[in-house]
Amino acid sequence: MRIVAGTYGGRSIIAPKSSGTRPMTDKVRAALFDSLGDLQDVSVLDAYAGSGAVGFEAFSRGAGNVEAIEQAWAAVKVIKANQAALGIDWGYALHQVTVESWLAHQTDKRFDIVIADPPYERIKVDVLEKLGRLLAPQGLLVVSHSSRVETPKLEGLTRISNKVYGDSTLSTYQA
After folding, report:
1. Would residue 161 count as lying in a domain?
2. Does the reported pTM lie above 0.90?
3. In this structure, are residues 82 and 51 in contact, taking their beta carbons and an 8 Å threshold?
4. In a domain, 162, yes or no
5. Structural domain includes residue 20
6. CATH number assigned to the domain comprising residue 97
7. Kind of pairing, strands 168-174 and 111-116?
8. pLDDT of residue 119
9. How are beta strands 65-69 and 43-47 bridged, if at all?
10. In tens digits, what is the pLDDT along the chain, a chain of 175 residues?
11. Is residue 54 one of the residues assigned to a domain?
12. Alpha-carbon distance 47 to 95, whole Å?
């Protein structure tokens, strides 16, 4: 795997060697970030971080701060190794908890962009809706899900795009 563009563009990163982690492919990640446009100084939440590739891509493309949530210890070790290899020592925060546990303690955080790439078999609409409540005005929630399932309908959010890339679909919602 590699960072596609930006400050760290072309740099390799590693992925967890686990069947429980399905990293977003370089192609899908490139399409996602090309669609998001300028990320200069935006705040990004990388829910279900896996290898950290999505958050590192956002950081590489100018995000002011990135928070990542990942529960699996093996994936957290990989994220920390990738963070060290890229030399990112500020503006990136990693939380080793479940997304549900992290959400239970959030009251005032707001993000310009929330990217949720949960394991396809564990997509929970209520969790996605809670992530959507963390959006700043005009913020975006991007959900990666299998193209074989119906696009989630999320209360309080407007779906503005739905793009299919093979087995993956990126559904983008706005607050």
Report:
1. yes
2. yes
3. yes
4. yes
5. no
6. 3.40.50.150
7. unpaired
8. 83
9. parallel
10. 999 999 999 999 999 886 567 778 889 999 999 999 999 999 999 999 999 999 999 999 999 999 999 999 999 999 999 999 999 989 999 999 999 999 999 878 999 999 999 987 778 999 999 999 999 999 999 999 999 988 999 999 999 999 999 999 999 999 8
11. yes
12. 10
Q: CA geometry: angle at 140 spanning 108 and 67, to 5°?
A: 55
114 by Cβ neighbours in 10 Å (0-12 / 13-18 / 19+) ranks as: buried
Chain centre distance of CA 120:
14
CA torsion 32-55-70-113 (nearest 10°) is: -60
Q: Residue 157: which of 174, 136, 138 has the closest Cα? A: 174
Residue 140 near residue 162 (C-beta atoms within 8 A): no
- For the chain, the distance separating the N- and C-terminal CA atoms, rounded to the nearest angstrom, is 31
φ, ψ for residue 83, nearest 5 deg? -60, -45
Q: What is the pLDDT of residue 63?
A: 97
| Tokens encoding 144 | 């990666």
Specify whether the backbone of 74 is left (phi greater than 0), alpha (psi in -120 to 50) or beta.
Answer: alpha
What's the one-letter identity of residue 162?
A: N
The CA distance from 14 to 36, in Å, is: 24
* Counted domains in the chain: 1
Residue-range definition of the domain harbouring residue 150: 26-174
